[in-house]
């Protein structure tokens, strides 16, 4: 039986790294994003991975769009069914809350938290119907547990995601479905590319490991949580931040 995993927000950055790594591991992967990308088109045309890869446009946070995407992914999974879901889709905007537009806060919460709840709801229902074990992984952030100036809405969205993890772990544990958060620090991806050199140096200097986390660092933890070896790990927020939050 081939294990099928859904990864939201897989067009670039961390999401693309997770998709590529899981395809290399032999999983079938369905992903979505608001629009296609060079990475998506490369995977769709790949002689090695194309048969195990599916992409669909989806506006995470729009309940109808999420339901359409999840229904399509479950249909593709077919008789093998769904094995895992990685809630990765997220957006970030910086600004002091006193002057931060309400519309931006609402958008961040809609994509990062409400969208993740919508995906988790659909995935939970599918896994419960299948009556087999499964994995739900939420990509959180240390900003959700520590808070950073200028990122109040983003921090709130990620803190909510960790709360979702703990609650769902209790709801689904008796059915052998694990739910965990992976909480990276600053990653060397497009999201950190907006930081100045001085900011990057400051973050690196405060990190005991002396560098930013990479996609491979996060992928290693995701691989473990998807594996059979992680069958008793649930309800956890696992930080991948080089020690900056210790």
SSE blueprint:
Blueprint: E1 4-8, H1 13-24, E2 28-33, H2 38-44, E3 53-57, H3 63-77, E4 84-87, H4 102-130, E5 134-139, H5 143-146, H6 152-172, E6 177-184, H7 197-206, H8 215-226, E7 237-240
Parallel strand pairs: 1-2, 1-4, 2-3, 4-5, 5-6, 6-7
Helix pairs in contact: 1-8, 3-4, 4-6
Description:
By secondary structure, the chain is an alpha/beta fold. Helix content is 45%, strand content 15%. The chain has helices at 13-24, 38-44, 63-77, 102-130, 143-146, 152-172, 197-206, 215-226, and strands at 4-8, 28-33, 53-57, 84-87, 134-139, 177-184, 237-240. A seven-stranded parallel sheet has the order 3-2-1-4-5-6-7, with helices on both faces. The longest helix has 29 residues, at 102-130. It is globular and about 50 Å long.
Number of helices: 8
Number of E strands:
7
Major beta-sheet overview: 7 strands, parallel
Average residue-wise pLDDT: 93
Helix and strand content put the structural class at alpha/beta
Task: Report the CATH superfamily.
Answer: NAD(P)-binding Rossmann-like Domain
Rg over CA atoms: 17 Å
> Unreliable stretches, pLDDT < 50, 5 or more residues?
none
Strand order of the largest sheet: 3-2-1-4-5-6-7
Order of helices and strands: EHEHEHEHEHHEHHE
The name of the CATH topology is Rossmann fold
Coarse shape: globular
**How many structural domains?**
1
Helix content: 40-55%
Could you write a compact summary of the structure shown?
With 246 residues, the chain is of the alpha/beta class. The protein contains 8 helices and 7 strands; from the N terminus they run E-H-E-H-E-H-E-H-E-H-H-E-H-H-E. The protein has helices at residues 13-24, 38-44, 63-77, 102-130, 143-146, 152-172, 197-206, 215-226; strands at residues 4-8, 28-33, 53-57, 84-87, 134-139, 177-184, 237-240.
